[in-house]
Write a structure and sequence with these properties.
Length: about 190
């Protein structure tokens, strides 16, 4: 890895949590320089503008979450276990409210009307997440682990909405108990699928 690549990676790694916590509009160039210890010139020597840093930070945060989900799913042997893995991974995100929570939710709400490129990335992430759950449910149906006649798309949308909605409510109320209540409902829902 070249020095320029190392510097670029440092910028992304150090700023990703800030963008996730403060959002695009709330993250300033001063935040970026303070987090990295680099000058503005160094930042702009590696990225054309703050937009590029924000897009790279989103990719970094998403990749981090996806690798945690994949690792947790690899520990599971049943479809139900793999679906419940999402709850376990997101529990880690919400358990530390200081890290900002879910980058998909944060970016979707932050960039909805203000940053089309970030909005597009958040949309792609949700659609990919939905597709992955649909594939899991279809696999579960074919292996007789999930009831035949179940609607994979409806299951995927319900899971995503409950996870993201649970994060939003827990963060707004600053009560982890709200997250736990919603996830208990989601676990019950998943258990009714078999």
């Amino acid at each position: 890895m070249t020095k320029a690549e190392k510097t670029k990676n440092l910028i992304i790694e150090k700023t990703a949590p800030i963008f996730n916590r403060k959002g695009y509009a709330g993250t300033s160039l001063n935040d970026i320089t303070a987090a990295t210890g680099l000058t503005k010139g160094s930042i702009y020597g590696n990225f054309a503008n703050k937009d590029e840093v924000a897009l790279a930070a989103f990719d970094f945060n998403l990749k981090s979450n996806l690798s945690k989900i994949e690792a947790e799913m690899n520990c599971q042997t049943t479809t139900k276990g793999k679906l419940l893995a999402y709850i376990d991974v997101y529990q880690g995100l919400i358990g530390s409210i200081s890290n900002g929570g879910c980058p998909i939710l944060n970016t979707a709400t932050d960039a909805d009307d203000t940053h089309p490129a970030l909005r597009k990335k958040a949309l792609q992430a949700v659609l990919s997440w939905k597709k992955n759950i649909i594939n899991l449910v279809n696999e579960g149906i074919s292996q007789n682990e999930i009831k035949e006649g179940s609607d994979p798309e409806q299951i995927a949308l319900t899971m995503i909405a409950m996870i993201e909605g649970g994060i939003m409510i827990a963060r707004l109320t600053n009560k982890l108990s709200n997250w736990n209540s919603i996830m208990d409902s989601l676990k019950k829902y998943i258990n009714t699928l078999s």
